[in-house]
Write a structure and sequence with these properties.
The complex is a heterodimer of chains A (284) and B (325). Chain A is an alpha/beta fold and 284 residues long. Chain A has 14 helices and ten strands. Chain B starts with a strand and ends with a helix. Chain B is built from twelve helices and ten strands. Classes of the chains: A alpha/beta (284), B alpha/beta (325).
Amino acid sequence: MTKPVLICPDDPSLLDRLAGQSLGLRVAPSADVAATVEAVRRQNGLFRLLVEADEPLAAVKPNHAWRGLPVDLMVPSAGRFADLAGRLDEVRSLGITVCLPIGGTGLRDARTLASLGIRTRLGLDGMPDWDALGDLMTYALLELVAHAPIEPFQTIADHSRTDARTTDWSSALFDDPLRFLHLSADGRIALSRRDLLNEEFVGDLAMLGSPALAEAQQARSEAWRQLFLDDHPCARCPGFRLCRGRYAEGDAKGAGMAEGCAGFFTEMAGVLEQRWLRPEARPW
Amino acid sequence: MVNILLTDKCVRQCPYCFAGREMARSAAGEFLAWENVVYLADFLQHSGHRRVSLIGGEPTLHPEFADIVLYFLARAFEVTVFTSGILSDARLGEVEKYLGEAPVNRLTYVCNVNDPIETPDTDGADERLGRFLAIAGRWSMLGFNIYRDDFSLGFAFDLIARHDLKRTLRLGIAHPTADGANAFLPVDRIGPAIARLAGFKADFERLAVAPSLDCGFPLCRFSDADLGWLVRLGGRPSFICRPAIDITPDMQVYSCFPLATHGRASLFAFNSLQEVTAHFAAEHTRIRAGRPGIFDDCASCESRSRGVCAGGASCQITLMAEAAS
């Protein structure tokens, strides 16, 4: 198993204990990124900077130290377009990825920013509006007019024919337990971002590289097998190869979203096929 | 030209309004959704078209008016806004704040004005128009619709001079709607109206204003001297009637307001603007199959057969055909 990327807060006492690891650093927009990155790079690999802002993109002051770095700027929304319009060139020139929530105006904002050449990533926590997500997915994968990638759709599309394992949401969202581990400030390890937020930890830093941790990662990665053993409806869904039961819990709880997610992932499987056929006509 | 209706709501009640019937059709006061703004930008870009006209109703009533203009500009479109210039204080503030740096060569407001004597001011509309032009004058030209042959243009020249507006005056013939219920310029009054227009030559020349003719003017009603004058002032006159392509807030598409019921379809049924244009060009051909032009002698007219003149507007022909039947 390859060494996972550790997604962790920018905490000096924690970073001191992570020498030799590849890191995804969660930082505030105001953080002294240049100094942090220099310190990290002395003894670690830098996977990405995850800049966590609590203001809309239009209100975030871009940090020019982000230029040339792999930055994901996490914002609650893009904000009013009129407030953002004057900053588009600056945002584009920084080459950052703007991460948006799936709720609120997130889907609309992702499409707007992508159409203007700004790379976006959707955080798919919670239950989306499946129809709206389907529209965005179709746009992301089939629109013929040039636009920036929208993740996780782009990664899934890129790998859908070459690497069967990565045709699920997790890898594009830093949530694949084989490739990413999430650390709390005090060094406890979670297998997903959701687990981190729920404070469901599998151990601490002492476990890094241990067979026990590898076993936990492997088990989580293959948790989808249980759906087959349980004869869960997800196991019979044509969209399963893309979602791997990510929304199975919603179904089990009777949240009424199963039909939506099945329709969405089934549609996405079809769109991926269509994408490879390179249609001449617009899809809608 | 592609006209995008941001809303079907309006702040005025112009006697010649071509859109009244269409606006009455959808009483909901609908606004174009943002998702469709992005769709339209993609659709037009895919069609190799980078010019849009934002119309209404009154397009500035759209709550995201400034955002939409800025979005199309960010997508490298040229944007023309057809407005009354009558804006609320809040919207005028947004125009000043957000559009005050817009490139003059890529954003134009066509401010449609009426003769204040014929349509007296209500609710301080003239004052609001003046405030709009004081702020947006650099981007603005005036538009005037002719629905009677004794019109005046003096007030328009005053506005152009006072606010140092763009030196073009867009002139349109008020065409009839499908039911002919609006005030419009009858076919037999087009000649006198053109003669009236020529009477303002001195004002056009004094202020170096180019007369820009909208669709439906028949070439034969201009003298060679008038044509020379139009060209010399930069008017680039055209006597053709083509589908304008109007797109409604609910993404319906038709040729133009007066022909809103002819071949109307969902924009989503088309893959490109070329397909849309071809669809409505066929409608125009069908309309003209029975009667080629608005005058009896259009049938044998050399200019029409050479494609220099359309023989008047298709909507006029439709109304004449319906009246005859």
